[in-house]
Structure formats: structure tokens, C-alpha cells
Amino acid sequence: MRIGVPKEIKNHEYRVGLTPESVSELVARGHSVLVETSAGAGIGAVDDLYVTAGAEIASTAEEVFARADMIVKVKEPQAGERKLLREGQILYTYLHLAPDPEQTKDLVESGAVCIAYETVTDKNGGLPLLKPMSQVAGRMSIQAGAAALEKAHGGRGVLLGGVPGVAPGKVVVIGGGVVGFNAAQMAVGLHADVTILDRNPEVLERLENHFESSAKVIYSTQAALERHVSEADLVIGAVLVPGAAAPKLVTRKMLTQMQPGAVIADVAIDQGGCFETSKATTHADPTYVVDDVVHYCVANMPGGVARTSTYALNNVTLQHALAIADKGWKSALDADPHLRNGLNVADGKVTFRAVAENLGYEYVAPETYTVE
């Protein structure tokens, strides 16, 4: 199979779909890899490293899309890239379709086979291809929130860790999953006053056992959410419903009760965000203010630490890329029900239930396209 790796074109996105090491693995299995020139520049992987790994360098994205059987990316294809997809071509990347009707429409019309990293599962029901980026984003949310709290950036002028004689900043994390856990770890490490809200008793017990007295773990009722958000200096939105739009847990009314200069960091923005006032921003212009509250809603947070993120992502995506290339997409999905859960669009149909329900498409089971 010929695998194509285009250069990412989303604003300030420096990650790349395959590292040179991953290219070597594919080439060793008899596949060919076509990499757009400078695709790996953001992680320090110059073209010569890809050539040494066995790849061919293409001068344009158009050439990559035209010649490749499978496109491996990081972020969802942008409008110009979607026009380059063709019927039967495999797209393997993050998609986040539920809050993105335009992308979904274009992918359906393309006839491409679209496998989304974020809905591939594992035997425990986890999301292993989303997990490393959730770890990165959770940790980055505290860095970004701490910077946004500085007065020069529109914040309250609060140092999260405080100093002797001055109370630390209050951090509220909504959601105790991978993002929330990693955000809380970083905030606790800074000696902030940390509260984590969740509704799952098993998650609450796990968090309580891990953090003990270093963080408060609270069952998330509406009243608890309103009280803790109103007192917070920094609120981290870390709620995920796999493949579906994120629930809007913090309303505009609740925002008006927050302290002027408080910060919210919405890590769920890829799935539409869990704050009513959230809208996607970029690394070039990461924040905006609503009702005196600073909003940080960068939709590709891990792109800011591209080298770490790319290698962490390849560690979990490569095995499936190899399976798809070795077996073909239908046989690969037949052999692995967890990879099959990643199929979101195929043959002009939506094959992931939450996306179909969110956007009003007829749902077609992925097994329809994987049984020979």
C-alpha cells in the first residue's frame, strides 16, 4: 500500500502524521510512503530523515493525496484537503465530526473511508489513540491557564501556587478522566488549591485514593458545580462523551457569577466545548473575554508541543496503520473490533452512531462495510 503524509495546515499545527521511525516500520513491511516536503519540520524531522527511512518526498499536498491509497494525518482535514479526497481512499486521523457538520458533509460526499483516532477503543472500553493527546492537553491546560491568569494577559493576577503568607489559586477541574486527572496532577504539583468534580463513583474513588489530601474530590451536582466554579480562579473543562458533542455544563449565567479575571480552559473544545460561551481559538490568538472571564479554547493544544505530541501519538497509532496497510481496511477492521469502532464514514455513509445522531444522518453499522 502507498501511504501519504501531507503537511498539516491548520493554524499553528506543527505535528506530523508519521515520524521517520514510523516510516521505517511501514517500509520494512513492504509499503511505500510519500511525505510532503517539510511535513516534519515542526518536530525537527527534515526531509533527509524521511528519505533515509525509505520515504519518497512529494513537492505538494496535491501530489500526496493523488498518489496515496491511505492518508495519515493528525488533525481533521481542512476544507481544501477534503476536496482532494477520493472515493475509496483511506483517511486515518483525528476527525471530531459531531460538532462539525461541514466536515462531515464533505467526507460523506467524498466517498472516502474515514477512520477516526478518537473513537478507536481498547478491551477496557478506553480510547487509546486519544489518551496520549488527552494527557498532553490536560497538562498543558494548567500551563496555559496559569499564563492567562497573569494580569498582562487579562487575568486576575493570581499565582496558582501562591507564596508563603498568600493563599494559592483555586483550580476546579470538571471531569476526572484522562484530561482531568493530568490537569489535576499538574495543578497539585504547582501547589494550587485543587478541586475535581465528577459523577462516576469509581472515578471518584480512584481520584480520592490517588490524590488523598492534595486535592478535593467532589460529586458533581448542579449546586456543587455552580458553587465551585463561582469561587475558582481557573476552571478546566475536561468532559468527554466519546464521539459525541460535549455537554454544555457551565452556562452563561454561571459565568456571570465568576470572579472578574478568572480563566476557563476548555479542553473539550474539539467536541464543541463544555462551556456555553466556548468557541474554538488558535495558538496564534488563544484567548478571548466574555463577562470579564478569560476563555482559552485552543482546538489543537498538543500542537504547541509538537515533538512530544507526535511521538506520543505515533506510539499508539502506528500499530493500526500497519494493520490497515498489511491487510487492507476491510480485513483489518474485521480482525479488530476496536479498530472497527474508529470507522466514522465509509462509502458515503456515517458509520458512527453518535455522529449520525448528532448531525441527523442515517446510521449504518460499520460491520456493513467490513464483512467480505
Q: What's the helix and strand layout?
A:
Layout: E1 2-5, H1 20-28, E2 32-36, H2 47-53, E3 56-58, H3 61-67, E4 70-72, H4 79-82, E5 90-93, H5 101-110, E6 113-116, H6 131-148, E7 170-174, H7 178-189, E8 193-198, H8 201-211, E9 216-219, H9 222-231, E10 234-237, H10 252-256, E11 263-266, E12 287-290, E13 293-296, H11 306-327, H12 329-335, H13 337-340, E14 343-346, E15 349-350, H14 353-359, H15 367-370
Helix pairs in contact: 1-2, 6-7, 11-12
Q: What distinguishing features does this structure have?
A:
372 residues; alpha/beta; Rossmann fold; eight-stranded mixed beta sheet; seven-stranded mixed beta sheet; 15 helices; 37% helix; 16% strand
The tally of structural domains comes to 2
CATH superfamily of the largest domain: NAD(P)-binding Rossmann-like Domain
Shape, principal axes of CA atoms = globular
Instruction: Please compute the radius of gyration using only Cα atoms.
Output: 21 Å
CATH class (first level) name of the largest domain:
Alpha Beta
How many DSSP helices?
A: 15
Mean pLDDT: 96
Uncertain runs are none
Beta percentage is 15-25%
CATH topology of the largest domain: Rossmann fold
Helix content: 25-40%
Which architecture of the largest domain would the CATH scheme give at its second level?
3-Layer(aba) Sandwich
| Main sheet specs | 8 strands, mixed
- What is the chain-wise order of helices and strands? EHEHEHEHEHEHEHEHEHEHEEEHHHEEHH
Major beta sheet, strand line-up: 3-2-1-4-5-6-14-15
**How many β-strand runs?**
15
User: Ends: how far apart?
Assistant: 19 Å
Helix/strand/pairing class, anyone? Answer: alpha/beta
